[in-house]
Amino acid sequence: MKEISDKEIGRWLNEAKTVVILGCSDRPERTSYQIARYLQKLGFRIIPVNPNIDHSLGEKSYDSVLNLPKDIDIDIIDIFRNKKYTNEMMEEIIKWSGQREKKPLVWTQLGVSTDSARKRAAEHQIPYVENRCIMVEYRKLVPRE
Q: What pTM does this model have?
């Protein structure tokens, strides 16, 4: 699968409505919380996935991608966990997305991507953005009025 261009990323970010944050914290001082809050203020529905919390930003947290409700249309899955978990997260995303028509964009924050996760995403035709901050890219690529 070819690398996604800035134009395509901008289109994904502009059209997306729901973003899953893998590793979303419920602590305001954490970067994952701050970026999730930023996206929420822009109008995105944020769905936290973190087995260590019950809620974040007023939303129920799920312990795994595999336990997300089937009736939610998810546009982007943002991996915000330590790089040592990225391959495991990608395997869960592959399993989860195999039950859906529409593949979400998988986004890996700075320093989180792995070669293996990128290759697995390509094997399953899952669009993949690596080593970029979703907040920075939104500010840069989505036109504002």
A: 0.94
| Of 94, 75, 86, 72, the residue nearest 116 (C-alpha) | 86
Closest by CA to 14, choosing from 129, 125, 137, 121, is 137
pLDDT tens readout for residues 86-99? 999 999 999 999 87
**Residue 49 CB contacts under 8 Å (≥ 6 apart), including other chains:** 20, 21, 22, 23, 24, 61, 62, 63, 64, 65, 68
What whole-number distance in Å separates Cα of residue 95 and Cα of residue 99? Answer: 7
Question: Is the model's pLDDT at 145 over the cut of 70?
Answer: no
Give the residues across from 62 on adjacent strands: 49
- Nearest alpha-carbon partner for 98 in 80, 125, 71: 125
